[in-house]
Design brief:
Distance between the termini: 33 Å
Helix content: 40-55%
Structural class: alpha/beta
Radius of gyration: 18 Å
Largest sheet: 6 strands, mixed
Length: 230
């Protein structure tokens, strides 16, 4: 995912997924001859609007691993109504992170999305919009100046939770004030209702989403080649 000379901004929300990612990247950095230039970015935003930032316990835990936090003021439109819907909040966070990364001279931004997020987001897209939108593992912005990467793409939520506990990461519960009232939580509830079949269904849906993403990329490349020939 990262070429030589890359610099990486870790997007940390304070949830276990992003803390597990921070732990993995910090440990990787300690084991290589040429460590990555790292910076932790936290956008102080949830559905209720701007927040006070990461708790002291999280900042101390990150600092103990050589990771210092940069708090970033969220980029919100003056006319934005609160509470924010998930899509609007995610878009504001992403835009803020990308702009902050560019301002700090970082080439890559890492998000903590994992395989279960891929499944849930794909189902949300199908169920609520009728489209097959898949979270990509890599995407470029600002003409390729900044790349958004998801290094946990193939890992499961449970695996990351166990890793975070082993790393003694602070466990703060939901990182969003609206976490129990979202479409994503309703999708999770539908999957949990499958009981023993949930693991199998999640695995099948994950690979179906990956195949859909690959098919879309091939079709996009084919259209580009046809345009070039024209």
């Amino acid at each position: 995912m990262l070429p030589d000379g890359a610099s990486l901004a870790l997007a940390v929300s304070g949830g276990l997924d992003s803390l597990a990612m921070a732990f993995l990247v910090a440990e990787y950095n300690r084991s290589v001859a040429t460590p990555l230039e790292l910076r932790v970015l936290h956008v102080a935003l949830d559905a209720g609007g701007e927040t006070e930032g990461l708790p002291v316990s999280v900042r101390r835990w990150l600092s103990s691993r050589g990771l210092e936090v940069v708090e970033v003021k969220p980029r919100l439109e003056a006319s934005q109504e609160l509470p924010l819907r998930c899509f609007a909040c995610a878009r504001a966070r992403r835009q803020t992170l990308l702009e902050a990364a560019e301002a700090h001279g970082m080439t890559h931004v890492a998000l903590g999305h994992h395989a279960d997020d891929v499944v849930e987001t794909w189902l949300m897209s199908l169920m609520y919009t009728g489209t097959a939108e898949v979270i990509p593992p890599v995407r470029s912005y600002f003409g390729g100046a900044v790349h958004l990467v998801r290094p946990l793409y193939e890992l499961k939520r449970g695996e990351l939770a166990r890793l975070a506990r082993l790393a003694e990461a602070p466990q703060l519960g939901a990182s969003c004030s609206a976490d129990r009232e979202t479409k994503r939580e309703r999708v999770r509830g539908s999957l949990r209702a499958l009981g023993r079949d949930q693991a199998l269904v999640r695995r099948q849906l994950y690979w179906a989403a990956v195949r859909e993403m690959a098919r879309h990329e091939i079709e996009t490349e084919d259209r580009g080649e046809e345009g070039d020939r024209g």
